[in-house]
Write a structure and sequence with these properties.
Helix content is 30%, strand content 19%. The chain is of the alpha/beta class. It has a single domain, classed as Glutaredoxin, CATH 3.40.30.10.
């Protein structure tokens, strides 16, 4: 599998669908054995082909993750009917920590866990939160580390651009 590398100081990268860095859902799906927080099998990433996916890796101990949840809720609410699917992938060691976080900061989008951390390893998650914006064909087109409220309009514009693309 090709490695995704974050270049320079840019927190936001554009990876075109023809880029050598683009990954396909099929290639990462085998490493992404995602479950619900109670350990049951969750969605298969390949089943999301045809949708724009905003996949956000988060943990309860991450202060920027708290701030990102309002944006993720809004993105799901505003763009869900346009084919955007937001997934929060929890990386906490203890499910209880994630559940307590969600009690304080409810999610109106899909929440899954990566108990083996293999999905995070395959995508080389280096910071919390890290988001992957995946186009309708399954290509990772944008990688974003961290979260600052001033970035929401740019992130929304990137998602909108992918929604408007023809598959």
């Amino acid at each position: 599998m090709k490695k995704i590398r974050l270049l320079g100081m840019a927190a936001l990268l554009f990876l075109g669908s023809t880029s050598l860095l683009a990954e396909h859902l099929e290639r990462i799906s085998s490493a992404c054995d995602l479950t619900t927080l109670d350990g049951k099998p969750a969605l298969e990433l390949q089943d999301l082909r045809g949708k724009v996916v905003y996949m956000d890796f988060w943990a309860s101990w991450c202060p920027p993750c708290v701030k990102s949840f309002a944006f993720l809720n809004q993105l799901e609410q505003e763009m869900g009917e346009q084919g955007v699917h937001v997934i929060g992938v929890n990386l906490d060691e203890k499910v209880k920590d994630a559940q307590e976080f969600l009690t304080k900061h409810p999610a109106n989008f899909s929440i899954v866990a990566d108990p083996s951390k293999e999905c995070a390893k395959a995508l080389e998650v280096m910071a919390m939160p890290t988001s992957y914006i995946i186009d309708k064909k399954g290509n990772i087109r944008h990688v974003h580390q961290g979260f600052r409220p001033g970035e929401t309009e740019e992130l929304r514009a990137l998602v909108t651009q992918l929604v408007d693309e023809r598959p």
